[in-house]
Fold these 2 entries.
Entry 1:
Amino acid sequence: MTEISVGLIIDCMRKVSNRDIQADTDIFSAGVDSLAVLRCRALLKAQTGIKVPGHVFFGGRTPAGIADLIGAENAGR
Amino acid sequence: MTRGWDDLLRGERWRSPDTLWVEDGTEHGWAAVDELAAAVEAAIRACGPGRVVRIRSGSKLGCFAGQLGAWRAGRVVVADHGDLGPGELDLVRPDLTLDVTPGRAEPAVPAVPAGPVGGPDRPLPADRIPGSVVTVNFTSGSTGSRKAVAVTRGNLLALFGCRGLDVPAPGGLTAGSFATPAYDGWWFDTWRTVAAGGTVVCLPGVNEDVFAWPELAGTYGIDRLLLPTAVVAALVDAVPDCLTGIPWLFSGGEQFQVSTYRRAREAGLTNRFVNLYGPTEATFATHKHELPTDLAADVVPIGAPLDGCAQRLDGGELVVSGPLVCLGYLAGGAVAEEFRGEFRTGDLVRADPAGDLVFAGRLDSRIKVNGLRVDAAALEHRVATLPAVADCRVVQDERLTVAFVRTPAGASADPAVRDRVESVVRTFSPAIGVRLLDRFPVKAGGKVDAAALMDQHRATDRDEEQ
């Protein structure tokens, strides 16, 4: 899975949350809520065509962690 | 009444191979669900006498077939999709817990008794709950802790027979299912559909795969879908495409905002919207308002009473009666308070020029701020109808009163919007804080999470002080 990079997740999270998100920012501690996650998933789908499930965000918590989980899920398929 | 109930539980159609239920990519026929329910019924009977059965299942089909089996065994059933806590269980005190798992390849796996839970050492008498009671509704707890409402078979049959909730479905009704069994929407989504001989299609959760909804809607021809008001607002805002292809969207639980409707139309959605109103104490819904295709009003009414609901106003408070009103509250596994045929909603309403009822706040919405009475509902309404404002919620704790204002994306940073909101709020009380947000946190059931709003507010305040 190369289409969804940490950088792309950071870009999308910043757009939907208006917050300064870094690769290692815990997005939920930074005040991102489930609706922002939904918007982010919609953006990722619009840009890459990939449907990322919400649990990846809740489990990954940081852009780097989220990208890792997306990679792991796809490697397992 | 008993005949209609028996026909629902044991009618001929339970032998049909036609699809009754779709969940997680698997189609289940009526006969397969019947088989699972028979296994549940046999397991219950094998455990001896008892009044209340808790059906625990990670699948909605397990909950549904568990309800069918428990009803056939003559029990009060509480379906637990993993979201009932010890507090809720203590209200009903099940004598028996069954774990129900529909098999992947096999149509049914026998239920496994898990022993008594939450109850005292000696079994409670069976007559602690009247024979007419078949299940329980849990209130959302937005006006206190959750309560258990005793629902009778007459309540459910009245709901199933309520023509005002029908939608056109020439090829047979197919309903999407969003609610879990802990919410009264379950009766509308699943049992009301099944009573009409229809098909239930379980939709993946918003956080799982909301993007799969249009495909499921297309494949199965979903005619209607019920969603909590806050979920409609979130989806219309963030992923409106997920709602395409479902002709009728029902919504309830909270005030339907005009801004949600406008946003839906701006996003090109052509769905018909139905705003439902009704306390959990009246089975599911008592009033409905079908939104016109061109909405001009500045507030969405709760509308007119459904057939089977009678209403009266007492000092502006809506009081409902009729067969939809439940028996009463349960506590400690027995009836603790009876409604005696009518339920005081605690909601203030007024009639609009067309005769439709409009929600005008809670009886208890008059809060005190610095010793002065403030009508929180009136404040919320005034702010919510300002330009560039989607919704407003006043939250009070022991220290603070804050008007939380939801604005369209980006507008929360706009000083002009803030000025307008503040000038309205100041006319109510200068001691009420204002916070503009792009979105409101919601609870699992889809209602706005007032406690989380306040927590977030305090956390942000601390950050700003540092």
Entry 2:
Amino acid sequence: MSGYAVELKGVSFSYDGDTVLRDISMRVEKGDFLAIIGPNGGGKSTLLKLMMGILEPERGEVRLFGKEPGRNGASIGYVPQETGHNLDFPITVMDVVLMGVLHKRNIFRRYDAALRTKAKEALKRVKMDSLSGRKISELSGGERQRVLIARALCGDPDILMLDEPTASIDFSGQWEIFELLEELNRKMTVIVVSHDMSMVMGFAKHAAYVNRSVVMHTIDAHTRYQIKRQLGGHEGHYCGAEFWRDMGKKIECNEECRHA
Amino acid sequence: MLEALEMPFFLHALTAGVLIAAAIGLIGPLTMANRMTFMSGGIAHATYGGVGAAIFFGFSVLAGAAAAAIVAAAIISFIAYRYAHRADTAIGIVWAVGMAAGVIFSDLAPGYNVDLMSFLFGSILAVNVTDLWIMAAFDLIALAVVWFYYYDFTALSFDPVFAKLQGVKTQFLHFLLLGLVAMTVVLSMRLVGLIMVIALLTMPSFSSERFANSLGRMMLLSIALSIIYIITGLFLAYMYDLSSGASVIIVAAFGTIALLLIESMKIKGFSR
């Protein structure tokens, strides 16, 4: 048994002959809060899907808690990208969360009372229990994302894997989600794909920059603290340019960007 | 109008209408949620190949249609899974080739033929008692399958990737669903017609999706709407001597538009 949550050794992957990831080796420690960052099309989501076993590597091997990812799917709490679901489909918040324990249904393929209690608890953890009877299409983007996190938590995961959870959410909604992830990280490993550098730098412990290859960076507690304070002080008006300016880079931040 | 109820053939048609509505209301919401409307259209048209073959070789039309529909469902399910990015092209081919085979078989069939138009557009004269028993049996099978896989289908419809991760056999369910579509198409053929059945799979589901908050309620609403549309359509077909399928579809179209208007007025009312 290795002591790592995720281990990749010489992993390569391509779609239709185009190499997306080349010879990746990396390790994610148990209890880490890892952000996967990088340009669009650089292989962020692919890397996450390889870690979960949704995709299989062309070369190399992936280990999740020392085993092949496909064989312990139950211990992964997956929060997919927003675009993946059918939002017109009539389904309540409760039924979405119950999907997290789909594999634990009884012999009639029904959820029994214990599983429903579990789903309610998961909703409480993300502070969404008051909306359990609501239709999923009636929620805001931020609320919906909390429900999907509850669905992932419902299966008692050892590791939480999120693919762009805040892509279509406003600043305060993003902040709340990352705060929630930080709290959950006290008990489990968290891996999140994100393009929002300011959030990543304020909350994650490590960042993996993915663009065909992977470069790991450590974000120390001091940096996190400072960035978080700066993020908090801007009350929703904090754009990428301001972030880099504050980081010591000189980028013109015009009127438009300040109110973006 | 009511004297129609004394005609045995019309009573058969009405009973068939209710039995078909049950199957359509159960299966339609699933095909719509899983974006299978075009696939269902492909299966429906390819079924005509089986009808033509049955007439040419002289065996049961129902058996020929069922065999063709299941084969078409298997081909389409396989392609949609393996070659997702070319699925619509392949479905279009299955659609047209099946139809063409049916036309050629019936051209070559010796002697004077049964009214082939009735298979395409439906006829209130075409249903017999054996058909009714087969339809009832299929309703029970469809109900059992949907009940057993209810949450699997829900997960597949809402978020297929997550469903797969949770151990749901998504490819199997995909084929199972298209198989149910195939049987629904075959059994609706006599009354509603092969070409018309796609519209009946989509319109009640489209309306009920907006008013329901679960798959189960969406199905119940779809069944209710399908019964209303089919029965009304059959009466109109009887009174004005129309093709029953076409008349059912026009009724359904009016109903769907009316429900859409009601809903948009409701939303405006709320926002005021």
